[in-house]
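Sequence design from tokenized structure. All designs in this work follow the same two-part layout: the structure record, then the generated sequence. An example of the structure record is given first.
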């Protein structure tokens, strides 16, 4: 590569060995770097540093003398490319150094200041230095914890809804049971009040209807499936044999009975249905 006319024919030729070389700024040489993309750990990216100068047919030898490797960053390679352009009527030459880096750690990292040298005919070199550039490296996004959290949240939600529905159903069933028990108690109270005035046979059949309603609620049967005699034979209504016989006798044309007899039957039914007389 040809030596730069800035150095061969300019200020450097007149510098005595004991004198200080001109700076890069004095020679119109500039260094720019970046930009840096958003990074996550493990990303490989290109970081560029460009050395530019104003020339008129001359060129410079720019030698990179440092590495971009730093804490959390590793240099994998480096390439360079020269170019020329015209800016504001003046020809500008540049060399772009492209460093291939890999982010090895997370956090606030720094690409170090990179050094370059421009050799001169006097055997010494002009030093150039880029700026240190901060880099933020984040952990890669992992959707698994978020997905697991969402699944857990959905499961908790459904479990809560299921418990709420189950609780509501239990409360509704309890309310229905209490209402049925209250209605049966009221029905039995009315039967006791009518024991002295109602027709004996009709009264016993009404008592049988109340007992059927109790059996339906207790055993969870449909109204059409409630047959007291069958339930007694199947052992589902223990101790009801005598009461069921009285109902059958009344149903098939039994004669009149005294009120005190019906009252005793009423008491037996109350005891079998576990209803306490208030």
């Amino acid at each position: 590569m040809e030596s730069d006319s800035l150095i061969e024919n300019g200020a450097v030729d007149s510098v005595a060995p004991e004198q200080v070389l001109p700076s890069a700024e004095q020679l119109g040489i500039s260094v720019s770097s970046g930009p840096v993309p958003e990074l996550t750990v493990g990303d490989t990216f290109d970081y560029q540093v460009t050395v530019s100068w104003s020339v008129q047919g001359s060129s410079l030898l720019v030698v990179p003398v440092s590495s971009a490797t730093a804490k959390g960053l590793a240099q994998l390679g480096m390439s360079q490319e020269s170019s020329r352009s015209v800016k504001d009527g003046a020809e500008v030459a540049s060399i772009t150094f492209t460093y291939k880096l890999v982010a090895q750690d997370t956090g606030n990292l720094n690409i170090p200041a990179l050094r370059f040298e421009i050799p001169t005919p006097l055997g010494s070199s002009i030093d150039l230095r880029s700026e240190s550039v901060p880099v933020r490296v984040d952990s890669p996004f992992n959707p698994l914890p978020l997905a697991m959290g969402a699944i857990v949240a959905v499961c908790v939600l459904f479990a809560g809804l299921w418990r709420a529905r189950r609780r509501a159903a239990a409360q509704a069933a309890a309310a229905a049971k209490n209402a049925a028990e209250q209605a049966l108690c009221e029905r039995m109270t009315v039967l006791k009040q009518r024991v002295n005035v109602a027709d004996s046979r009709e009264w016993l059949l009404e008592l049988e209807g109340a007992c059927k309603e109790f059996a339906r609620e207790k055993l969870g049967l449909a109204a059409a499936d409630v047959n007291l005699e069958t339930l007694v034979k199947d052992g589902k209504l223990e101790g009801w044999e005598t009461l069921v016989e009285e109902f059958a006798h009344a149903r098939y044309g039994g004669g009149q009975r005294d009120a005190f007899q019906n009252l005793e039957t009423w008491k037996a039914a109350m005891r079998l249905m576990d209803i306490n007389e208030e």
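Residues 145-272 form one domain. We note this feature because it recurs in several other targets discussed in the main text.
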